[in-house]
Amino acid sequence: MTELQKNYHALVSKIKEICKGCGRNADEIKLVAVSKTFPVSDIEEIIETGHNIFGENKAQEIRDKMETLQGKAIEWHFIGPLQKNKVKYVAGKTKLIHSVENEKIASEIDKRSANEGQVQDILIEVNVSGEESKHGLKPEKTKLFIENLRKYKNIQVVGFMTMAPFTDDEKLIRATFSGLKLLLDDIQKQYPQIVELSMGMTNDYKIAIEEGATILRIGSAIFGSR
User: Fold this and answer.
1) For the segment 118-138, what is each residue's pLDDT rounded down to a tens digit?
2) How is the chain split into domains, by residue range?
3) HSE value, Cβ hemisphere, 13 Å, CA-based, for 88
4) Which of 2, 57, 116, 197 lies 20 to 30 Å (CA to CA) from residue 224?
């Protein structure tokens, strides 16, 4: 077993332990192994463990990796900011786009997904913490955004994504994640099909699990520091 494979198995064990501690079913949580900047050979090592869900944050990098690993049953997630001229690389070709925050990008995803004959699942990125450096909509603007997206037939909103502040203050991190869960609970009254919460990375995934995350985006704990 390689070091990366040991890292992966240790992480999965830790996730199960955390879930047990807070009364959650680990099967309800999807682990996205964030392979950005790491070579295809590292992804292949993790595939050997049976894991097949990988995330990238640069459109051209995910395009190249999808091409190289074509034929392997990989579920690709795009997790980074998306520019309009890069949408063509991911729309209709990835399982989930985590980072939609404006209608210009949503419209382009819809158009490109239609060209591919696909309905693209997306998450709305929400800036719960209110940090100016963070991408995402303000929580109070998400409901109107969802309503505006209903006219597009080739995209489907399935949940929300957020990033917590990079801090040691657990209260701030927890408030961000619990805030997204509260938003989801409210939105579900009108849109019960919106179910996913993508939140939690290497430094804060324990809190994210405790606060209801359904998707974790974890890179360093598997692949090492960049």
Assistant:
1) 999 999 999 998 787 788 999
2) 3-223
3) 1
4) 197
At 79-104, the pLDDT tens digits run 999 999 999 999 999 999 999 999 99
Phi and psi, residue 159, nearest 5° = 170, -165
Tokens of 152: 């597009």
Q: How many residues does the chain have?
A: 226
Q: Is 75 helix (H, G, I), strand (E, B) or coil?
A: strand
CA dist., res. 107 & res. 113, Å (int): 10
Phi-psi group of 161: left, alpha or beta (phi > 0 → left; psi -120 to 50 → alpha; rest → beta): beta
Residue 166: predicted pLDDT: 87
Strands 120-125 and 53-56: unpaired
Buried b or exposed e, range 75-112, using 16+ CB within 10 angstroms = ebbbbbebeeebbbbbbbbbbbbbbbbeeebbbbbbbb
Note if the pTM is more than 0.90.
Answer: yes
Tell me which DSSP letter residue 135 carries: -
CA atoms within 13 A on the CB side of 93: 20
Tokens in use for 42?
């590292």
Is residue 3 classed as helix, strand or coil in its secondary structure? Answer: helix
Distance of alpha carbon 132 from alpha carbon 127, whole angstroms = 9
- Token pair, residue 116, equals 């591919």
Query: Are the CB atoms for 161 and 123 separated by under 8 Å?
Result: yes
Q: How large is the angle between the packed helices 142-149 and 103-116, nearest 10 degrees?
A: 30
Specify the CATH number of the domain 3-223.
3.20.20.10
Other beta carbons less than 10 A from residue 166's beta carbon: 11
